[in-house]
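Task 17 of the worksheet. Students: predict the tertiary structure of the chain below and write it out as structure tokens. Keep your answer in the requested format; marks are given for formatting as well as content.
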Amino acid sequence: MHPLVDNLSALKDADIENKIQDLTRKYFMSNNFDLQQQIGMVLNSYKEEMANRQRIAYEKMMQTRNKDLDKLINVN
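Model answer:
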């Protein structure tokens, strides 16, 4: 987590995606290596938060899915 990044859990998914796009654009616009490193660290924080949210959503979906279809195919 980058020290200048506040609590990302308070942000909406769309806000995080917009921030990732904005930071990516700024990263490639810059020719300053040190600035790119700082932007990269912030960008990684946002990407990790988004990946964590997607993982949680996937796990929730797998727990609540309809398991009736699993019984349709019986391979013996």
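Marker's comment: The two ends are 50 Å apart (CA to CA). Residues 33-64 form the longest helix (32 residues).
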